[in-house]
Structures are given as C-alpha cells and as structure tokens.
Amino acid sequence: MDTMTFTKAGGAFCGALLIFLLGAWGAESLYHVGSDGHGEDHAMGYEIEVASAEDDAAPAEAEPEIPFEEVFVNASAADGEGLWRQCAACHKLEQGENGTGPYLYGVVGREIGAAEGYSYSDALAGKGEAWTPENLNGFLLNPKEWAPGTKMAYRGMSDIEDRANLIAYLETIGG
C-alpha cells in the first residue's frame, strides 16, 4: 500500500460524508414544517384543541349504571355459553370434577364454599351465603375485592351484560 491509496480512500470517505451532509440539509429544507421552515402556508398538520384548566375543573358526568337485576332479566344463556370458554381453563361443569377451581355444576343457588372435594380459601369458606346471581355478579366483577384473600387469580369481567349472560348460562347447568 502506498500513499496514493490512502489519499484515495480518505478522499472517498470525505466525498461520501459531504454527500450525506448535503442530502440531510436538502431533506431538512424540504420537509421541515416548523415556523422557520416554509411558513404557515405550507405547514402540514391540524391544530388540536385541548381542554384548558378551567374545563378540567368541571366534573365529568358519569353514565348512570344500570342495576344488575335489570340486565339479568334480559340475559342470554346462549351468549353466556360463548363466555364460558374463559372459565373453562380452571373450572369444569361436571358435578364433582374439580379443576384448578371448583366445579360449577349447579353453582347458582349453591352455598358459597360448598363444592365437594375442593379446598376453598378462608375468604370463601366462611362466607355463609349462597351463590345468588347478585353474589356471582359481584364476585365476577372483581374477585379480589369481593372476597379479599380468595385463591381465584381472575382479574374480573368488567362488562355487566357479559356477567349477566355468563350467570344465566351457569344457571342452566345443573340448576
């Protein structure tokens, strides 16, 4: 290798750098839409109005929640059957066949914590109530809040219609 080869390589590197710098400058001048770019005539975008601090002070009106009893009257067991797939990972519908969770055959109306052969957490074992549609609704909405200390890892079902449909389906199984 001689000096001429190093000179050529250095010149090629400087030339490539110059082309990239000129390209970046050209692209910036073509596509920059700031106030020092092409001016307001050519700015490509839309102004989005946001709420001011005074607007935030007014409380937002929440939608009135429909009582569960009214939703449950119109619940569809057929729609609930489709929702059952979420539960089937841990629960079974056959009497006496527990999975990770207790079997749900005849669960609507059954005493809480009374599935044969299943070891309940203290949170549910000592409830002393029955699984009414209202109790199931509360439990399915947020199991950890309804029965603090429950073993159920499910985070809850937020849609009231989905809960009503699922409970209507469970009511048809062994009830």
TrEMBL record:
InterPro entries: Cyt_c-like_dom (IPR009056), Cyt_c-like_dom_sf (IPR036909), Cyt_c_1A/1B (IPR002327)
Keyword Electron transport: yes
Keyword DNA-binding carried by entry: no
Alphabetical list of Pfam families matching this protein: Cytochrom_C
Residue ranges annotated for the Cytochrome c domain, each copy included: 75-174
Keywords: Electron transport, Heme, Iron, Metal-binding, Transport
Protein name per the record: Cytochrome c family protein
Organism, as annotated: Jannaschia ovalis
UniProt lineage: Bacteria, Pseudomonadati, Pseudomonadota, Alphaproteobacteria, Rhodobacterales
